Amino acid sequence: MFSSLPFGYMFLCVMGVGTFLSVSSIHWLSIWAGLEINLIGFLPMLVYQKGVSESESAVKYFIVQALGSSFLIFGSLMTFGFSFTWDLYGGFQFEILGFCILISGLSMKLGMFPFHYWLPSVMAGLPWFSCLLLATWQKLAPLFLLLCLFELNQSYSMIVMFCIISAGCTLVGGFGGMNQTQVRALLGYSSISHLGWITFAVLHGEWALKVYLSIYILTSLSLFMSLWMSDSGNMKNINSLKTSGPHQLIIMLLLLSLAGLPPLLGFIPKWLVIMVSSKSSWFPVVLLLIMGSLMSLFYYLSLFFSLFLSLAKKYGLGELNISNKSIITSIAVLNIIGGLGLLLSNALNML
Fold first, then answer.
1. Could you give the CA distance from residue 264 to residue 301 in angstroms, rounded to a whole number?
2. Domain range enclosing 184
3. Number of domains in the chain
4. SS3 of 27, please?
5. Predicted pLDDT at 45
6. What is the DSSP code string of 153-210?
7. What are 97-109's pLDDT values in tens digits?
8. Do 234 and 201 touch, CB atoms closer than 8 A?
9. How much is the pLDDT for 16?
């Protein structure tokens, strides 16, 4: 656990410094240095867990991140040879091969299609706090760097590349989670699916990325903290939660919100992306994104119904009725937030 680490808070500070250095830099060398500082701060949290699965996940994560960093350096060297500058805002057009290598390096660090293979297996062997950091904080710097690359060169080939990556991420996240029973692996595939939506939101501006990422981080933080507080650390499937029935149903509601079930909060950013892309020429890509989200909803709803029926058999329907205050409160809060978000979005769209 995080509290047992001797220098845990120092590692968190190193991670934060690395992320802020990458986001605030306009020089590719300092961007690479910030990503490496972030990696140095995150790896000790994975290695010092004294478990075989945690060490295996740490080695996989280190190898993939090192490969992604080498892609970043190689791509920046190619663009340096073409433009004779290391500055990010140098006023030049990227060479197409160097640009593709830069995008590949950032996609590998994020775990996006077609470099998605490592993320579910790494998350399946990590504790909950490390999973939370991997699903939220570790995405900030590479995503904003992707946004910077898109603002530099909004060419047709780059837009096509982003659309292919976003559609592939969502479909992989939907298909990959179909046969999974481990909750951590399911959340890994869900993270890949959300990365597809976030990549497509980049095409519509910085505000779409920030709105989607903020709501995703808020929902993931609530879900991971709930799972962390209700688990001893070795949970393999949703039925092994060591909590009461109402608490398990609250966790499942958060899972459905993360999957984007309307009218919960997680549906709002997807609905916003659909609305802003409905007038663009890339709207057919949204159909693929919706298809992947429907597959994600399928396995989350399957988990929900199996959990509900097992709880009804174990505790009886009398303890799961509508009079339970905790369930009613969670449902009401999520629905009210989702409904207000829909009304606000409709009002903004009318203006």
1. 14
2. 6-349
3. 1
4. strand
5. 84
6. ---HHHHHHHHHHHHHHHHHHHHHTTT---HHHHHHHHHHHHHHHHHHHHTT-HHHHH
7. 778 888 899 999 9
8. no
9. 92
Residues in the chain: 351
**Residue 27 backbone phi and psi in degrees, to 5:** -115, 130
The mean of the pLDDT values for the chain is 78
Q: How many helices (H) and strands (E) does the chain have?
A: 14, 0
Report residue 345 as tokens: 């979005």
Residue 123 belongs to some domain of the structure: yes
Structure tokens at 186: 């399911």
Give the other-Cβ count within 10 Å of 293's Cβ.
23
Q: Following DSSP, what letter does each residue of 236-274 receive, concatenated? A: -SGGG--S-HHHHHHHHHHHHHHHT-TTSTTHHHHHHHH
Tens-digit pLDDT profile for residues 268-281 = 888 888 888 877 78
Q: How far apart are CA 203 and CA 206, in angstroms?
A: 8
Residue 250 lies in a domain: yes
**In the numeric block, which tokens belong to residue 42?**
């995150």
Q: What is the mean pLDDT of residues 270-296?
A: 85
CA 136, 139, 143, 144 dihedral sign is positive
Q: Which helix (H) or strand (E) holds 102?
A: helix 96-110
Confidence of residue 321 (pLDDT cuts 50, 70, 90): very low
* CB 141 within 8 Å of CB 38: yes
CA torsion, points 93, 94, 95, 96, in degrees to nearest 10?
-110
Is residue 1 in some structural domain? no
Q: What's the angle, vertex CA 131, arms to CA 300 and CA 197, rounded to 5?
A: 55
Question: Is residue 86 predicted with pLDDT exceeding 60?
Answer: no
Q: 282: which 2 tokens?
A: 């890339």
Number of other CB atoms surrounding residue 333 within 10 Å: 12
Position 88 scores a pLDDT of 53
Residue in the block written with tokens 């297996």: 121
Q: Percent of the chain beyond pLDDT 90?
A: 23
In a domain, 251, yes or no: yes
Q: pLDDT confidence of 185, banded at 50, 70, 90?
A: confident
The type of residue at 350 is M
